[in-house]
Write the structure tokens for this entry.
Amino acid sequence: MYVSELVVPGTVNTMPASTLDAFADHGHVPAAAPVADTYTSAAAHFEELGRTGIDFMDVTDTLEREGLAKFEDSWAELGATVDREVRADADASEDGTGPSGESSNAPALLAIYLNDHLAGATGGLELCRRAAQGQRDEERTTAFSTLAKQVEEDHDSLVQIMFDLGVSTDHPKVALGRLTEKAGRLKPNGRLFSRSPLSDVLELESMLLGVQGKASCWRTLRVLAEDDDRLYAEHLDALLERAEHQTATLEELLLAAAAHTLGHAAVCAPGSSLTQLTGPPNSPSSPASSGSAAEVAHEQAAPRALPGRPPSQQDLRAAGER
């Protein structure tokens, strides 16, 4: 067999697997490898083959064609195998049964999603508490404090939902959310040694975005509750409704703060329980002498009453057991 003559140290040969199998079955490794001083006798051997009618070039060409054909067949077989596996994974992904299907990653992705929202909720809670402490008007302080309490309850609801779903808290990510809020306190907003009036506007904008993001989370979980009995649709509906009330309240407070800080307008609607923020009604800064933006703020300044705490998943679970 020709393989024996190719066993030379320091060389690489790419022969078909069937040839290697045949050599392993009945081939033998020569005691001594070919050496340079045998090349002359090898050349004489080829000449003798030619005289007997054997075309060595035809032999090598035939071997090359057959070898290439075998490599092409192996490559085609490999490609077909990969294609079958890819198609099988794609089919499994569609019905959620395959190891690489999207649904197999769903628990991990849900954990990331909920921890992202928990980090945001943690930072939002810190912001609400700070905003409440920064108010000097009694009724605004009450409104902000009520909102902060509700945000804390919503934060706790999210923690409970994560527990019910078997999702562990990513403590470093949550800590990052808290640190991000604290880093925002370094922004002076035009004042170095006292609280800037602009801080009310910026904080309300941040809180509004946070509540809107929270509402989006509740909507997402509400969809999941259709197929997951660990989630209570009634609880999520109540949380979503309260988030919508919080959004409306924050929009009104933001409009009033913006008009007061940026538009120099009085913003208390007639009969409102809010203290007028700038000057008496007939002063130059009153809505009667201000632009349309201030008039809108004047009409919408009084915050809405926030709804009470909705029943928790634990409450609903206990009611169901009864």
